Amino acid sequence: MKLDILAIGVHPDDVELSCAGTLLRHIDNGYKVGILDLTQGEMGTRGSAKIRLEEAENSRKLMGAIIRENLGIADGFFEHNKENILKISKVIRTYRPDVILANAVADRHPDHGRAAKLVSDTCFYSGLKKVVQVNDDGDDLLPWRPKVLYHYVQDRDIKSDFVVDISDYIDKKIECIMSFKSQFFDPNSKEPKTPISGEDFLQFIRSKNQTYGREINVDFAEAFTIDRKIGVKNLFDLI
């Protein structure tokens, strides 16, 4: 199955927090969307790998993404090496997305920036014909390089290159985030508090998206960066 967009996150809730609204908008417009989590988030203070896998699937169903896979790479200690590049490349070649969304190029959590670099480099290597890979049935996976890679902005407010209007999807975005009940606000939880488990964190997400929206005169938006020039054929495409 070919995807239009593959959203990749190093932790199972990265996609929901940072670009769920954008994915919801494109799914609504008929695009085929999938999600790839690199790790199970097992180093997180709250929850467990098993719980987070279940939560990730619940979010996928709510969002309407076609597929969600988890590579099981070591959370916190993953390396930029051939093994991990080939794992990610196998998924890219299998689903052949035109657009990939990946972690922020720099952020508070060191995993985010490292994952951004790992995914960016994999997009290049995945297009090399001399990198030979096969699927689980032994069939050749042909080289595939996505047309574009965008990095979503995460916790730190780094300078973005463009924003996407998610005004009609902010409430459902929050629902997708709250699919990860173990990680976010739950008044009945007895697990340790974290910087993202307070009720004020959800308001922070709304406020951040509201700030991005203000820049383009809409209610809510999500921000992205790109490491190449953006090309258009018509200046009115940028309005």
How would you describe the overall organization of this protein?
- This protein has 239 residues and is of the alpha/beta class.
- Helices cover 35% and strands 15% of the residues.
- The chain contains six helices and seven strands; from the N terminus they run E-H-E-H-E-H-E-H-E-E-H-H-E.
- The chain has helices at residues 14-28, 49-63, 82-95, 110-125, 170-177, 199-214, and strands at residues 5-9, 33-39, 67-73, 99-102, 148-152, 162-165, 221-225.
- A seven-stranded mixed β-sheet has the order 3-2-1-4-5-7-6, sandwiched between helices.
- Strand 1, helix 1 and strand 2 form a beta-alpha-beta unit.
- The longest helix is centred in the middle third of the chain and has 16 residues, at 110-125.
- The radius of gyration is 17 Å and the shape is globular.
- The two termini are 33 Å apart.
- The model has no long low-confidence stretch (mean pLDDT 96).
Q: What is the compact description of this entry?
A:
With 239 residues, the protein is an alpha/beta fold. It is 35% helix and 15% strand.
What is the number of E strands? 7
Largest sheet: 7 strands, mixed
Helix content: 25-40%
SSE string, helices as H and strands as E: EHEHEHEHEEHHE
N/C terminus separation: 33 Å
Rough shape? Answer: globular
* Unreliable spans: none
Structural class designation: alpha/beta
Average per-residue pLDDT, rounded, comes to 96
Q: Give the number of helices.
A: 6
**What is the C-alpha radius of gyration, as a whole number of Å?**
17 Å
Strand order of the largest sheet: 3-2-1-4-5-7-6
